[in-house]
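haha ok so turns out i had the wrong file open the whole time. this is the CORRECT one, sorry everyone. sequence first:
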Amino acid sequence: MGAPIILVTGFEPFGGEKVNASWEAAQRLDGWRCGDAVAVARQLPCVYDACVAEFVEAFERLSPEIVLMTGQAARRGVISVERVARNVDGGSAPDNRGVLRADEANGPARLEATAPVSDIARVAPDHVRLVRRYVEDMEQNLARGKGLWIEGDVGTGKTTLAMLVSKAALDTGRSVAIYSLPRLLSLLRESMDTDRGLLDFLDRLSAVDLLHIDDLGAENRTDWVLEQLYTIVNARYEAQRTIVATTNLMPDELAERIGARTVSRLVEICGDPIPLYGKDRRREFRPEEMELLRPGA
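then structure:
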């Protein structure tokens, strides 16, 4: 019996690009050994049906113990470990043979990762470094209306990082409004007592230099919630104003809760979310650490 196989896949270049980062990474693992196991890299074509056929052929021939599939995400500056895969066979752009296919899927709509995703992604220095870089370029980011959003498990420090970003904006003399999503929607409902009250509140949300929304997706989906959130986010987008947001949901899950249009606008403002996964660390925070988040600290 031969050594156990770890099948690592990446994709060929796509859309006129000369390289695909996933294959650049995957091929460097070819021949790598982890204990008795050895990694075997295979490049997959960006072609419908052919991609699946070549993967199945490699899987059946190699009989791997572990499969690690990688892909390239445009504009994402860090490696993200995905816990959910959407079972979709289609997209908005043609494949490398020019075939454009509408979204279709056979089998379950979603597939959960079987690997310990949270443990893998727990150590996230690259993600913290991205936030630090954002803070260092605060003035330029605010001037361009460039925001950021952080996704991940409960208690991994998303709100802490977002609060530090908001505090950095305050330290530069900029105006900042900070709300949890439930609180923001509650204030919107209260302002609806008069037409002018609602308009004034929406105007203030549009005018502030940085709008910080915590816990996106923490509200039940209703037509009213969808409309209000899109109005707020779209107004910020059109005015080139910054948003900082946190969520426990992945983009596809978030789109189901707050609407695909709103998530699309968030991506335009913030780029791809910064993933932050791991165990709940909130009980580990000491009082003196929490003091650092207070205004004026």
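The two ends are 63 Å apart (CA to CA).
again sry for the mixup
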